[in-house]
């Protein structure tokens, strides 16, 4: 796993693992920034992400690496959902908001559009941001 540790593992902490990643954003920009940053993160090395994710079923090291990454991403998303809820912006409950953001910020969503539909990272991000807003944000704040 050595090479992957220097990629997905380090990037997981840098982009998806810290609640302070969202501290500089106001609530109006928070959702957009979270989704856009997630797309930029996956775009840095999608081949590596595919390889590491593909290894998780057979390689305990890969599975542990992805689990640590996912724990960090989940912590970040909980922070985002909490801030949106405290600001009165959520149109759904916290758990549903977390589930929607988990789906929209995951590699599968990014890769299905970037690779599967040959869309640019900015196009993918714009579509996923629109989906997040449509499902999660109280319409008065759109």
UniProtKB/TrEMBL annotation:
Source organism per UniProt: Actinomycetospora straminea
UniProt feature, compositional bias: Gly residues: 1-11
Record's compositionally biased regions (Basic and acidic residues): 12-25
Domain of life: Bacteria
Name by which UniProt lists this protein: TetR family transcriptional regulator
Residues covered by region (Disordered): 1-25
């Amino acid at each position: 796993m050595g090479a992957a540790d220097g990629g997905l593992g380090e990037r997981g902490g840098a982009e998806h693992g810290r609640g302070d990643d969202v501290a500089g954003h106001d609530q109006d920009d928070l959702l957009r920034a979270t989704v856009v940053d997630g797309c930029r993160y996956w775009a840095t090395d999608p081949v590596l992400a595919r390889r590491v994710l593909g290894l998780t079923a057979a390689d305990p090291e890969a599975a542990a690496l992805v689990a640590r990454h996912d724990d960090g991403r989940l912590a970040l998303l909980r922070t985002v959902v909490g801030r949106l809820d405290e600001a009165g912006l959520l149109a759904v409950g916290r758990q549903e908001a977390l589930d929607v953001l988990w789906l929209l910020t995951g590699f599968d969503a990014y890769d299905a559009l970037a690779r599967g539909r040959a869309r640019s990272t900015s196009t993918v991000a714009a579509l996923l941001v629109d989906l997040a807003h449509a499902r999660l944000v109280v319409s008065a704040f759109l």
